[in-house]
Amino acid sequence: MSALLGAAVLALAGPALAQLEGRGFPECHQGPLKNNTVCDTSADPLDRAIALIKTFTLEEKLNNTGSTSPGVPRLGLPAYTWWNEALHGVADSPGVNFSDVGDFSYATSFPEPIVMGAAFDDELIRAVATVVSTEARAFNNFDRAGLDFWTPNINPYKDPRWGRGLETPGEDPFHIASYVHNLIDGLQGGYDPKYKRVVATCKHFVGYDMESWNGNYRYQWDAQISSQDLVEYYMPPFQSCARDSNVGAFMCSYNAVNGRPTCADPYLLNDILREHWGWTEEQQWVTSDCDAVQNVFYPHKFTETREEAVAAALNAGTDIDCGTYYQHHLPAAYEQGLFNESTLDQALVRQYSSLVRLGYFDGMAVPYRNLTFSDVSTPHAQQLAHRAAAEGIVLLKNDGTLPLKIGSDMTIALVGDWANATTQMQGNYEGPAPYLHGPVYGANQTGATVLVANQPGGQGDPTTDNWRPIWEYAEQADVIVYAGGIDLTVAEEGMDRVSIDWTGAQLDVIGQLAMYGKPMFVMQMGDQVDNTPIIQNPNISALIWGGYPGQDGGLALFDIVTGKVAPAGRLPVTQYPAAYISQIPMTDMTLRPNATTGSPGRTYQWYTGEPVFEFGSGLHYTNFSISFANDLPHNHHSSSSCYNISDLTGDCNEQYKDRCAFATIPLDVHNTGAVTSDYVALGFLTGCHGPQPYPRKRLRAYKRLHGIAPGSTQTAAVNLTLGSLARVDDYGNTVLYPGDYALMIDTQPLAMMNFSLTGEAVTLDYWPQPPVKRVQENGYWVGGYGSTQEEGLLADGTVPGVM
Ligand SMILES: *[C@@H]1O[C@H](CO)[C@@H](O)[C@H](O)[C@H]1NC(C)=O
Ligand SMILES: *[C@@H]1O[C@H](CO)[C@@H](O)[C@H](O)[C@H]1NC(C)=O
Ligand SMILES: *[C@@H]1O[C@H](CO)[C@@H](O)[C@H](O)[C@H]1NC(C)=O
Ligand SMILES: *[C@@H]1O[C@H](CO)[C@@H](O)[C@H](O)[C@H]1NC(C)=O
Ligand SMILES: *[C@@H]1O[C@H](CO)[C@@H](O)[C@H](O)[C@H]1NC(C)=O
Ligand SMILES: *[C@@H]1O[C@H](CO)[C@@H](O)[C@H](O)[C@H]1NC(C)=O
Ligand SMILES: *[C@@H]1O[C@H](CO)[C@@H](O)[C@H](O)[C@H]1NC(C)=O
Ligand SMILES: *[C@@H]1O[C@H](CO)[C@@H](O)[C@H](O)[C@H]1NC(C)=O
Ligand SMILES: *[C@@H]1O[C@H](CO)[C@@H](O)[C@H](O)[C@H]1NC(C)=O
Ligand SMILES: *[C@@H]1O[C@H](CO)[C@@H](O)[C@H](O)[C@H]1NC(C)=O
Ligand SMILES: *[C@@H]1O[C@H](CO)[C@@H](O)[C@H](O)[C@H]1NC(C)=O
Ligand SMILES: *[C@@H]1O[C@H](CO)[C@@H](O)[C@H](O)[C@H]1NC(C)=O
């Protein structure tokens, strides 16, 4: 039925939600579905989905395999759009329909995940995700969104050039795994609720973190990844989704891994995702990234025919094709006997079981069905968007000028391309926001006179003639604020960065502004750039990283400046020197430094150079001291902090041994300064244990404490599991090794505790071994410089072949 007609009826009928029956929702109260088990709310969800699919003809089945499902009109099963986005708030996408004005014309627009990651606050993430799923449900009730959302993006952000790094919580796999567990909990409404709030989709599985670099494109890229790197770095966020968070959906990626496009790889989609991680509920489905099934044919050229491509994806376990390739080519593939109807049925049962679990067939019995636009952008949601920005903003330099009292007697010169930012603050995958409070708004709230010069424009317009207002305002000002950096014009989906430095024009202007000898702050917006010149310039009082801070970002920034909020965010990525990008190709998927290739290593765990700011950096307006509340527990397992591995593992009764507790270590955090402040306790493990080389350190626990008053103490519990002590061997097995361990709190350790494990190493998780390692050899594509595809072809004498 026409959505337009439905909307008109609604407008006339007011809030009578029952009007929605039969339009956005299946006709369970009349027609052929009425007596079908799918509409029996007391039946088993799997039986309900099976009963529905039994009534489909083959053609109807084949028709409902794409991201836009026509449904089955003769049954009263409406069309459904699977492709909905909600990265940091309900967002524009094929399934989401914002109205032009009035109700449903906006949704809360939180900061990009890179900023929310910097908050290191799992409870905040859960609260944000709960708001997002609440607003999504309100949209769905009025036929303005679906019930599943293709979020989160959790590929670890290992290369600063990646155009989609802003969509992720950062570079550390443990951090992302913890973040995403809480996010999914908030989006779906718990581990196994009767009715899911929405279905979340963990993407992009797996090894996807390059858009376009030196002639390499995400659509054809064959990432060569060792089992060790895969398990240690690329997989933990996805394991958290599938095994530990019961996420409803996964998305396979554009790239290939070790010779096979991920959407056509039964090793990844079946052996790892479904079997090894136990992600086998009937309601759990995999969608392809958009047109990734087409990409299996070209440019991967993984199969000889289009029919083989769609069959390879379906048989591997890709249940939904984002696009139309399944709908167009599965019919001929079926004729050719390339897949069984039972496989198609399984894909459809997964899709519709998921909708059953969302209450799609259950009408007003679903508790979320009474949500309306009055549940969108509530005062709570607005306050949370501000809090998320304020918690994520990171103070990187401060000569003591901040916090600064700014009164109505003062004049602020606000300079730079981000000075009057609006939609810039939202980054990508955004929807219309209720308001966009940029730096101008934030500065104005201080009561000061604000002079705004939006130069140099863009990424640093070098037309010096346009810079004249800057000097005029700087002359008049008491305080100078430069707000710039990068934005989506240089780093976006489809576009990786070609520089990680500030642009020349911006650095020139910043340098000249510093010479006025006035209090001057730099607000570094967007992703990381090399801040060396700003650190080194003694005339620049402070540097604040604001990222993409969302609808209230400008206010949050100035609340930090004035001290209304004390900064406590931490960089969730390494800030590298600008030259880093000439030391390692984007296509090098290894993490460890390598003398042969010249790689200096990736991420804080392995990078051998001197970072500009290391992962976890972030200053405060106060100081903290830390002490361990007790020694490690001494019991029959331990004497003088020495633990016997066979005793530790012998006591472990969990199905997944990495989950067994090692110790909960209480940590006293004492505020020794004069300002009330949050504090993020970061717990890193280091030491000589497991395979060499050893990482510099690994984040294994974190906790944000709130509002620690001067002179007072709060306690954080650092929970270590056997998994958090373990390391990964060459085969991808997770192993608990004997050796020396040290737990360090914070980046410049404020406290440290040593212990050791003795006895024989014990494997906690045996990794399913991959089929023989392959490289993609298709003769169609020759990757550019740095492409291991090209190197693979030259180096590997074996014939990888097509299958
Ligand atoms: C549903 O079942 C009832 C009782 O078995 C029957 O009277 C009715 O006609 C059926 N309705 C439909 C739409 O098949
Ligand atoms: C399949 O989809 C096509 C295009 O949407 C439509 O024309 C056709 O009627 C559908 N067939 C069935 C059986 O639903
Ligand atoms: C989106 O909503 C508008 C009403 O605001 C309606 O006219 C339009 O048909 C809808 N579009 C879709 C694709 O549902
Ligand atoms: C179809 O199912 C049969 C019986 O289980 C099996 O032998 C055959 O390999 C399957 N065909 C395909 C293409 O999967
Ligand atoms: C919506 O429904 C739920 C459960 O059915 C109920 O707890 C809640 O009070 C209702 N809210 C409103 C605004 O009616
Ligand atoms: C800021 O931008 C808004 C709209 O984007 C515009 O209306 C306003 O004049 C700008 N303010 C300044 C001070 O440039
Ligand atoms: C600044 O605030 C004043 C008073 O609060 C208001 O009149 C003015 O429009 C604001 N200016 C901007 C650029 O927001
Ligand atoms: C710092 O400011 C003073 C003037 O206050 C100026 O003489 C000096 O050159 C500046 N230094 C830098 C590095 O900009
Ligand atoms: C370093 O890189 C070379 C070339 O890719 C590779 O053969 C070698 O195994 C790597 N060394 C280590 C220690 O990973
Ligand atoms: C923190 O302590 C250091 C060294 O004792 C001191 O120099 C600094 O001023 C303190 N910072 C704050 C914000 O209190
Ligand atoms: C740590 O473990 C304790 C006890 O099991 C639990 O109450 C607490 O929530 C855990 N903390 C974190 C941050 O996981
Ligand atoms: C560890 O404990 C086991 C049995 O509990 C014992 O056999 C073994 O000798 C112990 N190993 C060490 C190194 O203490």
UniProtKB/TrEMBL annotation:
InterPro entries reported in the protein's UniProt record: BXL, Fn3-like, GH, Glyco_hydro_3_C, Glyco_hydro_3_C_sf, Glyco_hydro_3_N, Glyco_hydro_3_N_sf, Ig-like_fold
Pathway per the UniProt entry: Glycan degradation; xylan degradation
Keyword Signal in record: yes
Catalytic activity: Hydrolysis of (1->4)-beta-D-xylans, to remove successive D-xylose residues from the non-reducing termini
Pfam families: Fn3-like, Glyco_hydro_3, Glyco_hydro_3_C
Residues in Fibronectin type III-like domain copies: 679-749
EC number: 3.2.1.37
Enzyme class: hydrolase
MF term (GO), any: xylan 1,4-beta-xylosidase activity
Matches recorded under SUPFAM superfamilies: (Trans)glycosidases, Beta-D-glucan exohydrolase, C-terminal domain
Gene3D superfamilies: Glycoside hydrolase family 3 C-terminal domain (3.40.50.1700), Glycoside hydrolase, family 3, N-terminal domain (3.20.20.300), Immunoglobulins (2.60.40.10)
Signal peptide positions (record): 1-18
GO biological process, alphabetically ordered: arabinan catabolic process; xylan catabolic process
Keywords: Carbohydrate metabolism, Glycoprotein, Glycosidase, Hydrolase, Polysaccharide degradation, Signal, Xylan degradation
Protein family (similarity comment): Belongs to the glycosyl hydrolase 3 family.
Protein name (Swiss-Prot/TrEMBL): xylan 1,4-beta-xylosidase
Organism: Salinomyces thailandicus
